[in-house]
Task: inverse folding
């Protein structure tokens, strides 16, 4: 099984097979417009602009499961990305990425690239852990998505290669992206 076995919904409500992205390196991220990590859209767009011709595709999936940080419609999320960050990569329909109603693609991603635990010596990761502990203690355990802007890198063969947690900036992923391209 690979990500090419899944279908996702566009903002317009059309179903798209992930096979459309066969042969490309993908960054798949759950996103939100009202999150402290929202400025990552800018760096994701920079990566996209720099490496798209080399085979990189970035897919954004708005999600409202984390403190209601994506309250509007799918169209609102897409407009926000375009207007505020000049995003040119695809933004899909709003989805759930954790729990019973998580779309199959994200269930698959988290099964293939599980959460590796919190590295509390990292101040940014410690902050995320602290917020989750206080406000969303059930989010801490298991392999599920912990917060907005969890980023998965998928190889050209459709296999999940790596998971980058929300506090990892897209620019810090660049060396890895160059390596897998």
Result:
């Amino acid at each position: 099984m690979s990500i090419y076995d899944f279908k996702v919904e566009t903002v317009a409500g059309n179903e798209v097979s992930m096979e459309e992205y066969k042969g490309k390196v993908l960054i798949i991220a759950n996103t939100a417009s009202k999150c402290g990590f929202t400025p990552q859209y800018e760096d994701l767009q920079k990566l996209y602009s720099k490496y798209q011709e080399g085979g990189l595709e970035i897919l954004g999936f708005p999600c409202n499961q984390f403190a209601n940080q994506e309250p509007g419609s799918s169209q609102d999320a897409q407009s926000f990305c375009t207007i505020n960050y000049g995003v040119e990569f695809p933004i899909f329909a709003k989805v759930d990425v954790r729990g019973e109603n998580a779309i199959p693609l994200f269930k698959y991603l988290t099964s293939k690239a599980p959460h590796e635990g919190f590295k509390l010596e990292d101040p940014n990761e410690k902050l995320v852990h602290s917020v989750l502990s206080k406000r969303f203690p059930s989010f801490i355990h298991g392999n599920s998505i912990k917060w907005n802007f969890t980023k998965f890198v998928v190889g050209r063969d459709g296999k999940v290669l790596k998971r980058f947690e929300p506090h990892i900036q897209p620019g810090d992923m660049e060396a890895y992206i160059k390596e897998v391209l």
The mean pLDDT is 95. The chain has one domain: 3-115+146-180. The longest helix spans residues 123-135.
